[in-house]
Design a protein that fits this description.
Blueprint (H helix, E strand, L loop, with lengths): L5 E4 L5 H12 L3 E5 L4 H15 L3 E4 L6 H15 L4 E4 L14 H29 L2 E6 L12 H21 L4 E8 L5 H14 L3 H9 L11 H12 L10 E4 L7
Parallel strand pairs: 1-2, 1-4, 2-3, 4-5, 5-6, 6-7
Helix pairs in contact: 1-2, 1-8, 3-4, 4-5, 6-7
């Protein structure tokens, strides 16, 4: 269904983005990955995508805080593949502090990477999608795009903004064969979250299991992490033709968190 399409996935050298890159490659998409990390590790990922799935894979080191680099990333994907069919805005960072103690530079960085980068990528990719009258934009938001938690002012603001941006884009392209949707996951067991579990266990003097049950997953009624496979499946569905009438949606995949 997606064989021969091109998917550009930001923040895809680790965590959710890396898993999405593998899922779209497995579905037959050529892939542009993006993100920071060790050069050898990134090259190994790029080569693995090509060898394991028989697709083309390229890498962009574009800094998601720099609009010019984001626009160039899209141009590079179009130059190599001839098109960007699927844009997945996944890049994100986190910082936790009370509002009155929140460092302004951390606020600016989170808004830039978690929200503004999506705007700049969409802005650059839309002309090509409009020309071909087909495109899929998938924004990885969060349960925090729908509800709030204390000490996450910048992240919650950015993810709420991502949901709003999704709706505006969807309305603008509704008659052009393009859709724009947001996926709003609860907690996924990424390397970042695993680090938080260890830190919380040490800080609170409790076990990792207790941190997972009583702290990390306290808001998720299932008391289970959202799996990479579940998130990938939803993203792949949204990218397909059968999701053509799903547009401007903020789709929860959070074990019931936002049902409360």
């Amino acid at each position: 269904m997606l064989k021969g399409k091109t998917a550009l996935i930001t923040g895809s050298t680790s965590g959710i983005g890396k898993s999405l890159a593998e899922a779209f490659a497995a579905a037959g998409c050529n892939i542009m990955i993006n993100g920071f990390g060790d050069k050898k590790t990134i090259e190994a990922l790029r080569a693995k995508l090509e060898k394991k799935y028989g697709v083309q894979a390229i890498y962009s080191a574009a800094d998601m805080t720099k609009p010019d680099e984001i626009a160039q990333m899209v141009r590079d994907a179009e130059a190599d593949f001839g098109k960007v069919d699927i844009l997945v805005n996944n890049a994100g960072i986190q910082y936790v502090a009370a509002v009155d103690e929140f460092p302004p530079d951390k606020w600016d960085a989170i808004i830039a990477i978690n929200l503004s980068s999506a705007f700049h990528a969409i802005r650059a990719a839309l002309p090509g999608m409009k020309a071909k009258k087909w495109g899929r934009i998938i924004n990885i938001a969060s349960a925090h795009g729908l509800v709030a938690s204390p000490f996450k002012s910048a992240y919650v603001a950015a993810k709420h903004g991502m949901v709003g941006l999704t709706k505006v884009v969807a309305l603008e392209v509704a008659e052009m064969g393009i859709t724009c949707n947001a996926i709003c996951p609860g907690y996924v067991k990424t390397p970042l979250v695993e680090g938080q579990i260890d830190d919380q266990a040490k800080a609170r003097g409790i076990s990792a299991e207790e941190v997972v049950r009583d702290v990390i997953l306290a808001a998720q009624p299932t008391k289970k992490f959202v799996s990479f496979e579940e998130l990938n499946a939803l993203a792949l569905f949204l990218a397909g033709d059968l999701a053509a009438s799903i547009n401007g949606a903020a789709l929860s995949i959070d074990g019931g968190w936002t049902a409360k």
